[in-house]
Design brief:
Elements (H helix, E strand, L loop, with lengths): L1 E6 L5 E6 L8 E5 L6 H9 L6 E3 L6 E4 L12 H6 L8 H14 L15 H14 L4 E5 L7 H15 L7 E5 L11 E6 L2 E2 L5 H7 L11
Parallel strand pairs: 3-7, 3-8, 5-6, 6-7
Antiparallel strand pairs: 1-2, 1-4, 8-9
Helix pairs in contact: 3-4, 4-5
Length: 221
């Protein structure tokens, strides 16, 4: 992204000449106080909002994973929900086989017919990630994906994304928004976002050491 800008209808700027480049596939994290533009940035990348100016150059496809998986999971069972994101042109047998592979990749093997309402919060988030993978996305955008999870599920989701980004064949890129500074220890690089601009990449450990608890601000849009 180069010189990306976005202003809300009320005249409030959210992004101000924002620059961002992922150096290579991996897990990249953004931190920043509420109102810094993090969530708006992800929505611009995935195309949910049109930029007011600047350039987004992305060779692959992006998929957004929301903080609350209940906002993303629409069908009654795990397998049927994945069907929504699978490409057209597959036979019914191919679609089921592909869904089973995706469920296994996220640690939900054998749950094809499992009702979604019976899943734990962590399982729902992993199913949402499987849905993003089903769309053939090469860039996962994760908006505080562990915020509503218990500590064990937080670690499970973080380890899953770390593994997907470290695959020797077809590694993914992931851009992860977090307020949990301990999560920075697991990323390939981290940057702080302030006033609609992204700072330089640095190691997650270095950024964590430089930050005090982030101040709260107006609710982010």
């Amino acid at each position: 992204m180069e010189a990306l800008s976005f202003t809300w209808a009320n005249g409030q700027p959210a992004l101000r000449g924002c620059h961002l480049e992922l150096p290579h596939p991996g897990l990249w994290m953004l931190v920043g106080s509420n109102g810094s533009g993090k969530s708006t940035l992800l929505r611009l990348i995935v195309g949910l909002l049109p930029p007011c100016g600047g350039l987004i150059d992305m060779p692959g496809k992006a998929a957004l994973v929301f903080q609350n998986p209940d906002h993303q999971l629409l069908m009654p069972s795990c397998g049927s929900d994945l069907q929504l994101s699978l490409p057209e042109g597959l036979s019914p047998q191919e679609r089921q086989a592909r869904a089973d592979v995706l469920l296994a990749q996220v640690g939900l093997a054998g749950l094809h017919h499992r009702p979604i309402h019976t899943l734990s919060g962590g399982q729902k988030q992993r199913l949402a990630i499987a849905g993003a993978l089903a769309s053939s996305a090469t860039l996962l955008l994760l908006d505080e994906p562990t915020a509503l999870l218990d500590p064990n599920s937080q670690q499970d989701v973080l380890a899953l994304i770390r593994a997907l980004c470290s695959r020797p064949h077809q590694p993914l890129s992931a851009l992860w928004i977090t307020h949990r500074l301990e999560e920075l220890d697991s990323c390939d690089g981290a940057a702080r976002m302030e006033r609609g601009q992204v700072g330089p990449w640095q190691s997650g450990q270095a950024l964590r050491r430089s930050l005090t608890p982030l101040p709260s601000g107006p609710t982010e849009r």
